[in-house]
Design brief:
Blueprint lengths: L3 H7 L35 H17 L6 H10 L9 H12 L2 E5 L5 H9 L2 E5 L16 H8 L6 H19 L3 H13 L2 E4 L2 E4 L2 H4 L4 H7 L4 E4 L2 H4 L12 E5 L2 H10 L2 H7 L17 E3 L4 H4 L11
Parallel strand pairs: 1-2, 3-6, 5-6
Antiparallel strand pairs: 3-4, 5-7
Helix pairs in contact: 5-7, 7-8, 7-12
The structure holds fe (ii) ion.
C-alpha cells in the first residue's frame, strides 16, 4: 500500500495521458496555461453583482427546509449573501481555514484530466463569467452562480470535502480505463443531483438542484421521480439526463456513507467489468434497489421540458 507521501506525490503535476485514453477535444484559450487557470478573477460590473444578488434572493426563498443542513450552514459560514459576486481570494481564505480547499477561476468547461487534477489538490475550478438577465432562469454552461453558490458551500463540510478530493483521484484511474462516463454518472447523481435523508425528510445537496429554481421542489417533493438509496455500483451503470429534470434521484443516508462507499470500492475491478455504455435507463427501478419513492414519471411521460408538462 502506498504511503501518504507517495499518494500526495502522485498528484503534484498533471498526468501524462497515454494515446489509448480518449479525451474531448476542447480548444484551450491562448491566455491560459496547461492548468487552464485564469491569471485573475474577472472584474464584475454593477449589473453583474445585481444578477448575483437577485439569483441569491430567489434561491433563499425556496431552499430553507429543502436544502441539506450542511449546505445551508456552508452558505452561512462563507457569508455568500454579503452582496455581489464573491471574491475568490476571500472565499479561498475562509474555505482554506475550514477544510483546506480553495476556489480558482477558469474560463469555461475544462478538460476532465485537468478538472480531476485540481480536485485531487483540493482546488475547485469555478466559471468566471455570470449569466445575463436573458439567461437568468437556465443556462447550459456552468457560470459563477452555479459553481460558487451551488458547489462551494458543500466544501465546508469536512467529509464531503474529502469525498470531492477522492473523486478527483478516482478520475485519473477512470480515464486510464476509458470509463469516464461511469464515473461521470457518479458525479452527476451525487455532486450535481444528490439527495440526503435527514431526520425531518429528504433534502437536496446537489449543486444542479440547488443553484436553480425549477428542480428543488421537484427533486425533494414531486410524485414523478424515483428516489432510490444510493449504491455506487448501481449509479455508475445508470444513464442520466443533461438538459431536463432527472427521472431518478439517489439518496445517501450520510456523507460518511457516500465517502466510504466510494473510497472502499475497488474501481479497477469495477471498470474491468463495466461495458463502455450504460446498463440502466434513467427511469429504471431494478430488483436490488432500496426504493424510497417509486415515481409516477408523469412529467417525463407527458413530454418533459418544452412540452408544457407540469413538474409534478
Ligand atoms: Fe456543477
Amino acid at each position: 500500500m502506498a504511503t501518504v507521501m507517495e499518494r500526495i506525490g502522485e498528484f503534484e503535476r498533471l498526468p501524462d495521458l497515454a494515446e489509448t485514453v480518449y479525451t474531448a477535444p476542447l480548444q484551450k484559450p491562448a491566455h491560459v496555461g496547461d492548468d487552464w487557470l485564469e491569471p485573475r478573477q474577472t472584474d464584475y460590473s454593477a449589473e453583474d453583482d445585481r444578477v448575483w444578488d437577485d439569483l441569491f434572493s430567489r434561491q433563499m426563498e425556496i431552499l430553507p427546509g429543502r436544502a441539506a443542513t450542511a449546505f445551508m450552514q456552508g452558505l452561512e459560514k462563507l457569508d455568500l449573501g454579503r452582496g455581489g459576486v464573491p471574491d475568490f481570494e476571500v472565499l479561498s481564505e475562509e474555505l482554506g481555514r475550514l477544510t483546506g480547499w480553495s476556489v480558482v477561476p477558469v474560463p469555461m468547461l475544462i478538460p476532465d484530466h485537468v478538472f480531476f487534477w485540481h480536485l485531487a489538490n483540493r482546488r475547485f475550478p469555478a466559471g468566471n463569467f455570470i449569466r445575463t438577465r436573458e439567461t437568468f432562469d437556465y443556462i447550459q454552461e456552468p457560470d459563477v452562480f452555479h459553481d460558487v453558490f451551488g458547489h462551494v458551500p458543500m466544501l465546508t463540510d469536512p467529509t464531503f470535502a474529502d469525498y470531492m478530493q477522492e473523486y478527483g483521484r478516482a478520475g485519473w484511474k477512470a480515464m486510464r480505463f476509458n470509463r469516464l462516463k461511469a464515473l461521470g454518472a457518479l458525479y452527476w447523481y451525487t455532486v450535481e443531483f444528490g439527495l440526503i435523508q435527514e431526520g425531518d425528510g429528504i433534502k437536496a445537496y446537489g449543486a444542479g438542484i440547488l443553484s436553480g429554481p425549477a428542480e428543488v421542489v421537484f427533486a425533494t417533493q414531486a410524485q414523478s421521480p424515483n428516489r432510490i438509496m444510493l449504491n455506487v455500483d448501481r449509479v455508475m451503470r445508470t444513464d442520466y439526463v443533461i438538459s431536463d429534470l432527472q427521472p431518478t434521484y439517489f439518496v445517501v443516508e450520510s456523507f460518511e456513507d457516500l465517502y466510504h462507499q466510494t473510497v472502499e470500492r475497488d474501481f479497477d475491478r469495477l471498470y474491468r467489468s463495466l461495458s463502455p455504455g450504460f446498463t440502466y435507463a434513467n427511469t429504471a427501478v431494478i430488483d436490488l434497489d432500496d426504493v424510497l419513492h417509486r415515481g409516477t414519471q408523469e412529467y417525463h411521460l407527458r413530454g418533459g421540458r418544452g412540452s408544457g408538462a407540469q413538474p409534478v
